[in-house]
Each structure stands twice: as structure tokens, then as C-alpha cells.
Write a structure and sequence with these properties.
The protein has about 150 residues and is an alpha+beta fold. The chain is built from four helices and seven strands.
Length: about 150
């Protein structure tokens, strides 16, 4: 697997993969265009396999000293091989290079796999947003990782 910058030609593939992974919570192709247009504040990376097929993606919102993990996803065929960790590590690296001191994300409270990934990578739950994900009334957990030597 290798990582590369998101390109506009990737957007149809990302929208399709997004629907497969997230169903009703998926970003539309229009949402992806909006994210791509948000550069340089938005920073996205895709993971491609040996056949140059997209098997994962992740993105950041870089804003001042606080950044947000916008999304991170791995195709079902590539799950369980550490790609999520690799993508998250790359986001943290990019955030640190961008001067980010605190990195935030939201995760569905019922997504145990993602929560474990974030916790293993230094993120702590700091709050909850009740009934954030609709339909379904699922809470969002807000998690934070301090980076760049920040403490407290």
C-alpha cells in the first residue's frame, strides 16, 4: 500500500466507497467536491493498493492550532491489516507539520473498531454529542489527541 494526495479524478470512487461503508451517513459526490475545494485548509490522502485501486482515505481540517479529523475509512477488502492505523499516523504527521497542537474527531459511540483505533493512537474521549447521528439516535463521541509537545 502507498499513500498519495487526493485528486479530483478520485471523487467518484470515494463517493462509491463511502456509500458502501457508511450507508445513510455517506458523503455525497457534491460533499467530496466541496472538501476538495477547501484546500489548503483541507488535506486529504488516499491509500492505493498494488493495482493502484483506492482502498482507504483520510482527511484533515487544518485551522489554527486545532485540527479536525474529517474522515478516515478503509475498504472492506483491506480491513484488518493496519491500514487505518497507517492513515491515522499520516494525519497526525501532517497536522504536526501544519502547526496543529490539538487534533479532534467525532466517532459514532457504537463503532467499537474505530474507537479502539483512536484510543490506541492517543485519542481520549472529551465529550459526547447526544443523538448526533440520525437516523438512529446514535451519540457522537468527541475525542482529542494533543500533539506537538502540548500537555494539559
Amino acid at each position: 500500500m502507498r499513500l498519495r494526495a487526493l485528486e479530483w479524478t478520485d471523487l467518484t470512487t470515494l463517493a462509491s466507497l463511502e456509500r458502501d461503508l457508511f450507508g445513510e451517513d455517506a458523503w455525497s459526490i457534491e460533499s467530496w467536491w466541496h472538501e476538495l475545494a477547501g484546500r489548503p485548509r483541507r488535506d486529504y490522502v488516499v491509500a492505493v493498493d498494488e493495482a493502484d485501486q483506492i482502498v482507504g482515505y483520510a482527511g484533515l481540517n487544518l485551522a489554527g492550532e486545532t485540527g479536525d479529523v474529517m474522515t478516515i475509512a478503509v475498504a472492506p477488502t483491506a480491513q484488518g491489516r493496519g491500514l487505518g492505523h497507517h492513515l491515522l499516523t499520516e494525519l497526525v504527521r501532517r497536522a504536526e507539520l501544519g502547526g496543529i497542537r490539538s487534533l479532534l474527531l467525532e466517532v459514532r459511540a457504537d463503532n467499537a473498531t474505530a474507537r479502539k483505533l483512536y484510543e490506541r493512537n492517543g485519542f481520549d474521549v472529551i465529550s459526547a454529542r447526544r443523538r448526533y447521528y440520525q437516523p438512529g439516535d446514535v451519540d457522537a463521541l468527541v475525542m482529542r489527541r494533543l500533539i506537538g509537545g502540548t500537555h494539559g
